[in-house]
């Protein structure tokens, strides 16, 4: 199962909302994945198949190895679907 | 048996755990998720208290050094810190007010045109805590306190997003969500100032901001650095030998100050971890209920949700707000108020948001002026608020964001009339 880590500055509010949107999108697609949320500081020691968050936030995780995808509107299912689909297979 | 029930109903951790349990059952979650989620929620409350202990240690040290250096009381606004401290004293009342506030929010969103569901759970908790602190300091009895506090909280949860919505639409370019964050008065001010200085100027997004400032988004690191700078500054002013003689047990004052700064940051990190556990079961349940019961409900989200719409305004807003905070630090003691040491978390999150709102209505000039005024507000309001917090006013920390100050002061004013 793929693991998706959602990241924001504090790991409290916007990452959790994005996690709820991602879960809704995954449900629509009929795909199951392990989705979690955390803050940027903790994310640096996490392993996941995809790191998702605001473009400026996830760029802080860019080490050339991690898979990153940015989302601007965390409530927009179309944007979230487009961002995560390439990483699900 | 009655004692058993009372023990449960008066323990905030267990109370919040019960609420999470109800939410999980309502969502028809799997048995394993129900048990896990309930325990995680209670665990969050316990972790919160542990983080507070760590935070207090370094906060006390900071105050001792600051007092010795300037002969003034320095206060660092930190919502997480003051809430964690307050929950020891008024935890169960806060839990009841928070739960009741969420219920009132759902009722108001269902039956009034204000269709907002406030999903920033940690701010709901902080506001519940502020309301209880102010009402508690006035000597109100518990039943009146919980009922009126819950109604007030529920009202704020729909009114504040609604007030901001005309500006929020300008920021996001659509109407898909609202801003649910209790720095609203600062953002309103920024939006209005932006409108006043006009849209003729260029947008913040037309300029290049150095990527080297992006580490500021990492709050744990940026907070540790800022606290280290603050500790070094007050340590030098107090004299290194004072610290080595009185506080550090002979350890070099710079090493000691650096360690204290990191301890402060670690305390906040632990508190945040606790809040995260606490909130992450309750908010989805709250949203689940609203999705089922309230047609056309609009989610009111935490402020970073709007950051991607104007990333440059985020950095500019933080810097200008911080400058406002630094200037205010010198003005407050001159007019007889407590010294508010600019706190990094409030200036980053609310300054950035004020910057984004100011930019949406008034371009670069709106962003600069709007967030600067936000910076002044989040120094003067906490300084004025301290007197309203009763015994909590002496804790060395206070609520940072504007709405806590405005609501706290208004409540105190209203109580005085009666």
- Tally of individual domains of chain B: 1
Radius of gyration of chain A: 11 Å
Biggest sheet architecture of chain A: 4 strands, parallel
Question: Mean pLDDT of chain B, as a whole number?
Answer: 91
Work out the number of β strands of chain A: 4
Order of helices and strands of chain B: HHHEHEHHEHHHHEHEHEH
Biggest protein-protein interface? A-B, 27 and 39 residues
Number of strands of chain B: 6
Structural descriptors:
heterodimer; A: 89 residues; alpha/beta; Rossmann fold; four-stranded parallel sheet; 4 strands; 37% helix; B: 418 residues; mainly alpha; three-stranded parallel sheet; 13 helices; sugar transport (chain B); transport (chain B); Ascorbate-specific PTS system EIIC component (chain B)
Overall description:
- Chain B: Belongs to the UlaA family.
- The complex is a heterodimer of chains A (89) and B (418).
- With 89 residues, chain A is α/β, with parallel strands linked by helices.
- Chain A is built from four helices and four strands; from the N terminus they run E-H-E-H-E-H-E-H.
- Chain A has one domain: Response regulator (Rossmann fold, 3-Layer(aba) Sandwich), CATH 3.40.50.2300.
- In chain A, helix 1 packs across helix 4.
- Chain A is globular.
- The N and C termini of chain A lie close together (10 Å).
- The mean pLDDT of chain A is 92.
- Chain B has 13 helices and six strands.
- Chain B has one domain.
- In chain B, 74% of the residues lie in helices and 4% in strands.
- The chains are: A alpha/beta (89), B mainly alpha (418).
At a glance:
The complex is a heterodimer of chains A (89) and B (418). Chain A has 89 residues and is an alpha/beta fold. Chain A has helices at 14-29, 40-43, 55-59, 77-84; strands at residues 3-8, 34-39, 50-53, 68-70.
Fold blueprint:
The complex is a heterodimer of chains A (89) and B (418).
Chain A: E1 3-8, H1 14-29, E2 34-39, H2 40-43, E3 50-53, H3 55-59, E4 68-70, H4 77-84
Parallel strand pairs in A: 1-2, 1-3, 3-4
Helix pairs in contact in A: 1-4
Chain B: H1 2-9, H2 12-26, H3 31-70, E1 74-77, H4 79-111, E2 116-118, H5 121-137, H6 142-172, E3 178-179, H7 184-197, H8 219-238, H9 240-246, H10 253-293, E4 298-301, H11 311-334, E5 339-340, H12 344-385, E6 397-398, H13 402-417
Helix pairs in contact in B: 2-3, 2-4, 2-10, 3-4, 3-8, 3-10, 4-5, 4-6, 4-10, 5-6, 5-13, 6-7, 6-12, 7-12, 8-10, 11-12, 12-13
């Amino acid at each position: 199962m793929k693991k998706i880590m959602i990241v924001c500055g504090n790991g409290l509010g916007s990452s959790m909302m994005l996690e709820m949107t991602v879960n809704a999108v995954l449900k629509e697609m009929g795909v199951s994945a392990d989705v979690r949320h955390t803050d940027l500081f903790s994310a640096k020691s996490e392993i996941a198949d995809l790191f998702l968050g605001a473009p400026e936030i996830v760029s802080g995780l860019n080490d050339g190895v991690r898979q990153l995808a940015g989302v601007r509107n965390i409530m927009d299912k179309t944007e979230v679907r487009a961002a995560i689909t390439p990483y699900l297979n | 048996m009655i004692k058993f029930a009372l023990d449960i109903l008066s323990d905030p951790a267990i109370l919040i755990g019960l609420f999470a349990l109800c939410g999980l059952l309502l969502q028809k979650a799997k048995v394993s998720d129900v048990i896990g989620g309930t325990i995680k929620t209670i665990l969050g409350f316990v972790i919160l208290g542990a983080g507070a202990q760590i935070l207090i240690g370094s906060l006390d040290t900071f105050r001792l050094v600051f007092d010795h250096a300037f002969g003034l009381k320095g206060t660092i606004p930190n919502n997480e810190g003051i809430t964690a401290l307050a929950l020891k004293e008024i935890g169960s009342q806060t839990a009841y007010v928070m739960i009741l506030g969420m219920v009132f929010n759902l009722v108001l969103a269902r039956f009034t045109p204000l269709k907002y569901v406030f999903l920033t759970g940690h701010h709901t908790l902080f506001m519940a805590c502020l309301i209880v602190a102010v009402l508690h300091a006035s000597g109100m009895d518990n039943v009146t306190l919980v009922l009126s506090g819950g109604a007030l909280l529920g009202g704020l949860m729909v009114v504040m997003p609604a007030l901001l919505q005309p500006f929020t639409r300008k920021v996001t370019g659509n109407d898909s969500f609202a801003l649910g964050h209790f720095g609203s008065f600062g953002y309103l001010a920024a939006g209005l100032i932006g409108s006043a200085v006009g849209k003729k100027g260029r947008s913040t997004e037309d300029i290049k901001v150095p990527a080297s400032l992006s580490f500021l988004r990492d709050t744990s690191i940026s907070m540790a650095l800022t606290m280290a700078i603050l500790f070094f500054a007050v340590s030098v002013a107090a004299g290194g030998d004072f610290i080595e003689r009185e506080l550090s047990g002979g350890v070099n004052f710079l090493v000691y100050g650096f360690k204290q700064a990191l301890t402060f940051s670690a305390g906040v990190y632990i508190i945040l971890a606790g809040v995260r556990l606490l909130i992450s079961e309750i908010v989805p349940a709250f949203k689940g209920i609203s999705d089922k019961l309230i047609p056309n409900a609009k989610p009111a989200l935490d402020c970073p949700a709007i950051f991607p719409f104007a990333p440059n305004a985020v950095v500019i807003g933080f810097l200008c707000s911080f400058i406002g905070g630094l200037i205010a630090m010198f003005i407050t003691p001159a007019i007889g108020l407590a010294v508010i040491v600019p706190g990094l978390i409030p200036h980053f999150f609310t300054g950035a948001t004020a910057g984004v709102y100011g930019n949406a209505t008034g371009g670069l000039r709106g962003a600069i002026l709007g967030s600067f005024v936000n910076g002044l507000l989040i120094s003067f309001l906490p300084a004025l608020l301290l007197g309203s917090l009763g015994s909590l006013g002496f804790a060395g920390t206070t609520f940072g964001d504007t709405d806590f100050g405005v609501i706290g002061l208004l409540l105190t004013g209203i109580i005085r009339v009666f």
